[in-house]
Automatic annotation (TrEMBL):
Coiled-coil regions listed: none
Residue ranges of domain M23ase beta-sheet core in the record: 30-140
Organism this protein belongs to: Pedobacter aquae
GO MF: metalloendopeptidase activity
Highest taxon, organism lineage: Bacteria
Pfam families for the chain: Peptidase_M23
UniProt name for this protein: M23 family metallopeptidase
Amino acid sequence: MKIAKSNAVNVNGGRFGANVRTRIDGTTKPHWGTDLYAEVNTPVYSIDDGVVVRIVNDHSPGQSNGPNDFGNFVEIETHLPNGNIKRILYAHLNSTNLVVGDSISSQTQIGLSGRTGNAKNVPNPHVHVQVKMNGIKVNPELFLEAEFDDLGSSINLPCN
């Protein structure tokens, strides 16, 4: 597992943060997710148990409807024992077979990675993972079974 670079050299652009991507005019823009490198049509699995609460599955591979388009995605909601609600969104999928209301368990295949939405032409194919706790965007790296070095490679995952 590794973080996808947002261009040929910048791994930080694939990480969560308020000022991690630079526009052509030099200003920065936020990236509220983590981009996990995945060759196109790689199976994508859920991080957690939950219920599918939102799906978009109408994009053909390579299709985008604008700069803020996630393409095909699945969003899964988990109610935690402490009362918190976690939502995890998996974006830029080529396809999914799930439907809203499906209950899934951790490691359920939720779709195939792809190049949809604003990731249609990126140099590094990836799945954009976005996490919200009680509606607040938080760093997805906190919920992955891996830690990443400065180059975006996992440093503690047994099956790199």
